[in-house]
Amino acid sequence: MIASPLPDLVGRQRECAALDDLLVGLREGASRVLVLRGEAGIGKSVLLEYVAAQASGLNVTRARGIEADMELPYASLHQLCAPFLDELEELPGPQRDALRVAFGMAAGDPPDRFLVGLAVLSLLTRASEPRPLLVLVDDAQWLDQVSLQTLEFVARRLLAEAVAMVFAVRDPEGQAALGGLPELRIGGLDSAAAGELLEATVGGRLEQRVRDRFVAEMHGNPLALLEFSRGRSAAELAYGMDASSSPGVQGPVASRVEQDFAGRLVSLPEVTRTLLLIAAAEPVGDARLLVRAAASLKVTPDAAPAKAAGLIEFGESVRFRHPLVRSAVYHGAEPEERRAVHRALAEATDPVLDPDRRAWHAAQAADGPDEEVAAGLEQAADRARRRGGIAAEAVLLERATEVTPDPWPRGRRALAAAEAHFSAAAPDRASELAAVAEMYPLTALDRARLARLRARLLFARSRSDEAAPLLLEAAAQFTAAGSPLARETYLEAISATIFAGRVHGPTGARAAAIAARGSGAPSSGSLAADLLLDGVAALLTDGNETGVPALRDALEPLAREELGTREATVRWLLLAPVALEAFIHYAWDLHAWDTLSSRAVRLARDIGALGTLPPALIYAGGVHIHYGDFAKADRMIEEADAIAAATGHAPHKYAALVLAAWRGEADVAAALIEEATKRAVQRGEAGLLGAMGYIQGVLFNGLARYEEAMAAARTGVEHDGFNFTGLSLVEHVEAAARCGELDQARASLARLVELTRAADSGWARGASARSQALLTDGDEADRLYRTAIEEFGRGGVAVEVARSHLLYGEWLRRGRHRALAREHLRTAHEMFAAMPAHAFAERARRELIATGEHVRTRSATPASTLTPQETQVATLAAEGMTNAQIGAELFISPHTVEWHLRKVYAKLGITSRRSLPDALAGAGSAGTVNAG
Question: What's this model's pTM, rounded to 2 decimal places?
Fold first, then answer.
């Protein structure tokens, strides 16, 4: 049983009960996460101590954030994981290597921070196997950024591991940290508890009026109550205090406490105040380093007065009583005193073992520009980048800029700092540094980089077409400088116009393509990238007859080009969306779509690029929608959403919308469409608005609501977009034909025939033939329907094969060919029911009934009760993958894999993974239909 609250935790019964409950769950093997939030001094750290004291028999590890301007990547995470690093060799290779590079234990490509997160999840899971693991993180708002992001990722992925994480976060500084995780807000003590704590501290009864005034002014803040009453008797509190220490001083409680700590410093000996300042300036708390720095300043370490005043604790490490003491010491010192201390710390820090910390202290010691200091910071920034610490790189480069004396390197470093801040998702700071860079002389290449950065900042804020001209300007500058970045930037400009949703006009995709073709830009060094730009530019400038063959020339290099480095892989992943949009909407090539999206998923998994994995999964999910494998598409969409949520990215709604449309889920689709449309309008993503025409066309055609389908599809047809025009035309032809709007249908058919002629793929030929059949009669219509079925089958587009059987069957029934109609309608119904595409299946069912056939309802199978994640885990297990391999594939822990498998076994009525292949295969059988 968990022990009752510690005697000195007055008034915290609710909080202790929540932590007790967390420990009960952890001891039972359940994952738990809790974020304690509150102002400084409210008692968060004490509650962490409470839960640690109750954690007998558990494994406990800790980390603590320290307020400091210095950003050392993964420093806090290394502190947390240090007890378990002997387990590092047991991790899967990519995870082990990523963590070793992140912790500075090995050299290598900068690791993706989310792959590091998965490695930490695996490491903590292994550490929890002998005993459940309790992870305590104090002052999380001051963790280095990449450590905080990594721990947040781990917290969001916990499911079936015997790991609990408790974070303490100070508000308001940490309001943005760890959002969305379970939290417990810690408020001030109520008046009764606060009075009890106050009287226990002063050792006597207080007059009610005095006690109530004091408690009210401290807002129930325990630290304030303790510190303002420390060393004062009940009588002193009753008759008042001097103005400098009075709680009546205006300002937040935390500020008043800090002022009180500052007041205690005045009475300390000067040598003790200097020792405290050294400790405040060095956030690691290394006592040996403090002693060496003190010797450099010719100060004899004498901490006894500070310890007696309750300000600091000395041991192997140095720890202030509270972060507000550190703040009072550091900010209360004169600037020259702080510089002297940092100078001493720089001299005392080993230049080989800890060059980054030495460089930082040297920078803080500088009282003016200093090229040697700036160069040291730049080198530290490069080391941070190689470890994956982009935020640390940005901070170090920014400080290097500040102390650079000469204009040329100052501009170059400001630009590098701005680019690093942009990569670290700090666009406002990036804009400020870009403005600094613009004030100084830059090389032609750096001016091009600055122009590209400004365009990216604009595009990040809004997907409008305003970014494209700036990217074209940057690309032209890269070309003039002879840089291989030129062609890549032209592709980026075209990509920006695709998302903005404009082909024509001065800022459209065609204008970007014309500029690219006429630029004479040098090779990018990648055959795939060069051929892709040539193909896309030809599509936009010369039209499909020339552009589609040129685009096909890029397919083989895109599918097979050797990618020797992580950087090359990342650049390929950035090209993939443009390539996929072109092959889908112009080449009508489902096999190319499959090939490129599968490679994108595989490459993103291989390097742990969880930022680009969700969109790759969304594209791959779209392939399986068209293959008619909705379950697999659903699994990919679910995985993409889970990873996006765990990494703090917005979910990608496109595939979920298409899937809901094909399933005929009107309510689901309506909610998704409303949300996606609102987001598209807010961000200026006109391209997504064009996609809505196609999506709603599929939905309403499936539901036989043809007038709505016609109106929706028309918006996709009329939209001046790079993508979805052809697919919207297919929906518009069907809807208009059903509504008797034959002129509209024929106009759309003419455009569709023109669009698909050059593609010459099974998908394109099938779409053209079926759309022509809808507007034709007699033997020619019969031939066209049969051609459509054959061509869609050749293209692998199962949903369109089924739909062609449906339309052909409907046409045959209306022509009184009931037996033949029944054959095609039965095929359509079986295919749609198996997917399941409910609305289209219902259309087929109604038509079958009209032919006189009785249709049996499709019965549910045990596998239909599996969630997408359970199905994905079960499928991989059935293919022979181990739990560790499945976990690495899906970015979850082996424990979570086992947890999912236990649920799968129960639902399928089996007892082991050996039975999975047969159970899953038997679950896929379709329903049956009988002739009436």
Answer: 0.75
